[in-house]
Amino acid sequence: MNGRVTERPQVGPPAPWSFPEPSVVPLPNGMRLLLVDLPGQHVLSLRVFLPLPVSDEERGTEGATLLMARALDEGTSQHTGEQLAELTERHGIAWGAGAGERGVHLGLEVAGRHLGIALALLTECLSSASFPEAEVDRLRRHRLVDLAHEHADPGVRAARAFTAAYFDPRDRPHLPVGGTTATVSRLTSDHLRDRHAQLTARGATVVLVGDLSDAPSAVGTVAATVGAWKGDDEVAGAPGPARRSDRAHRTVLVPRPGLAQTEIYLGRPGPDRRTPRGWGTYQVLAMLLGGAPHARLDRVLREERGYTYGVRLGFRPRSVGGTTVVAGSVRADVTVPALAETLRILDVPGPEITDREVREAADFVAMTAPGRYATADAVADELVSLAGEGLALDTVTQTLSQVRGLERDAVGAAWERCGRPPRGRWSWWGTPTGRPA
Amino acid sequence: MPLDYPVSTTTLDNGLRVVVSPDRSVPALSLNLWVDVGSRHERPGRTGLAHLFEHLMFQGSELVGEGEHMSLLMAHGGRSNATTSFDRTTYVESVPSGVLDLALWLEADRHGHLLPALTQTTLDNQRDVVVEEKRQRYDTVPYGQALAHACQAVFPAGHPYHHTTIGEMDDLLSADLSDVHAFYRAHYGPRTTTLTVVGDVDPAQVVDRAQHFLGHLVDGTEDRPPRRPTLGPSSDPVVRDLVEDVPSDRLYLTFRLPPVTDPQFLHCAMALDALASLDVSRLHRRLLRREESASGVHASALGLVDGASLGLLVLDVADGTDPGEVEAAVHEELASLGEAGPGETELEASRADTERSWLEALSSHDERAELLSRAAVSLGDAGQVNTYLDDVMAVGPDEVRQAAATWLSPEVMSTLRYRRAGAGSGGVPRTATAQGAAAHTAGELP
């Protein structure tokens, strides 16, 4: 047995690492394939981004894009939904579909030996999804139940109340990407078929990441399947505007008497990822203000006062502009002091943010990158996100480089610009007069 | 064919077990300290202590300031967290390779020298935080108490799994400083701890550094309670109606399963796959697709060590459907699975899905470290991560049928029915706009 070591050990220098650089392969139909070989990652992560902004949805049918994406595997001209489920699950393929501001995201996780069948199924769904009435009716009903469940969740409810009040009612972001009970109720197979007919290979991207020794003919298989799918000839447009409502600067109270906590949600304008100040600047700000128990918000609200399990600050980028958001649940009987304390903390002048805070947060962002991007799904998600947003494929590398050299003045100036005070919108959940349970 | 993740296991003289799995794909490593203490080790009247303790472990130790464990690691590119469950508490770090020594030193200080820093102030503060965690995660969300109800239904009073990890509010409020000091002495020490490291290291280096930083710890823990013999399926299942403000009627059908160390546990998990976990599962096809009497169907098997595990079937009842209809259909399908066993598609899909999700989990250093610790402590062999899929592939339809007949029959199932309060009254709260505020021009950001 050895004695106790009381002196803190030194830390070794970080080893060189860079975000994987994908091979870019043009496909026959105009899509591009981004390919990354990650030895040891035996489940391949396949992602597809198809441009189709939700802002193009016909008014009153908001949510059609998401429901269309979810219904892609509910029947094709060759297979019923049950047959597709069987083909997918017998090969252990996990399938996900979603929609965002710019378009449709599809994701498949598959063992290398089943990549061929996964690509064949994906291509079949893209080219000949049939949206059978019975299946669409069922998915619509389930989606309405999901919306009711989201409505009952304090965190989601507060976020929804915020976007409804913050964004101009004329613009699409005023409503959730997946639509509302009113709009989803109206959706039919025809709405979904219309949206599906607008899917195009032009401007679309396929990403494949993992141990490619498990799938030696991957490039040829992708080219012969998804790469041969045609889709619509029209090029998808850019997302529509996301204007701030004229009435955005206000407080919304959502009463829920009897709840033991109040959900506080504050927001104001924020940057998008193309900000000339560098997106990394905002990653660092989010970390030092609201990214950890010792960040400025939780150091007081959680660790000193015990008001909350945690309050977070983040930046939500859109294609143009974005929002700065602060959110968390606090004990109902301290709602007012917690809110006052939150605003006081957020009112920190940029120049008062210290060198040490900036250095520690920047080092965290930069040095956690190798661990954050160690798996196929994390690399694939990042690449498809960059592709969808039209950003350069070396954006992660550039951002990390910027973060490593970040100075306190730049961070302080960015906060002065977007952070003080975040009175763009307040949205509350709960009741300030509720009593603790 | 077994997987071939390298696994090396060593036990230091003081009892600390060290498991290492080198993987040099990125210059980072994941540490997992699995402490053999969870809510099953708590005493009546002191529930929630294991989890409260997990919070206190971040509040400083003899040589480390309050909150410094996390902030120091983060400043060097580390991420740090902890979780508590029925059987164990784990402390995890994901750090650049050069931070191994610092991480081990920090862990040594809190795992061996916590009490000098554990004061009434830190206890009071973290108790407040945990109370807010309980409210946020369990008390203010629909169905938030479902697991607690399930455990009460499935495990008899006095059984270690009768209560959940978050604990009872009264117990949390009454825990005092002497309770938490005693808890630490009884449960935290090298004999109850397993250190797993996955990533950019070699096993000899980890053992050497573990010896250097943790080798001096002296064990004073109580002996771990022996694991109970298998409890068997419930003999007195309960039915309970809960009328609450929930968005839809929901059924939690709960089962007492064999412990995770029993091969039958895997058979039960695959039977639950055949029933409900997959799109090809019979309840999915029947209730979601054909009869449309449910809008959601899920199943899970929570593997535990102390004589029993927990199985759950969760069904969201479609609006306008009598929950009794759904229950009756589930009873039929449970009986049929117990009589005829799974279909070929259900079994093949269960195997394929398990293979993919197991490989996905092992592809992450953090999750591989957690699975290695679990294999070493709960299952008695860290090498289980390499052989598990062979076990899965070897399970045949008759074993699944037998497991369903024994452990998942309607006769041994407890039923929790969440019913909507005032269903049909459209009780959706309205949004009220209060207080306007002075005009404020934020301007657009660059």
What can you tell me about this protein's structure?
The complex is a heterodimer of chains A (about 425) and B (about 450). Chain A is α+β, with helices and mostly antiparallel strands and about 425 residues long. Chain A has 16 helices and eleven strands. Chain A has a six-stranded mixed beta sheet, with helices on both faces. In chain A, helix 1 packs across helix 7 and helix 9 crosses helix 16. In chain B, strand 4 and strand 5 form a beta hairpin. Chain B starts with 7 loop residues before the first strand and ends in a 10-residue tail after the last strand. With about 450 residues, chain B is of the alpha+beta class. The longest helix of chain B has 20 residues. Chains A and B meet through helix 2, strand 5, helix 4, helix 5 and strand 7 of A and helix 2, strand 5, helix 3, helix 4 and helix 8 of B. Strand 7 of chain A pairs antiparallel with strand 12 of chain B.
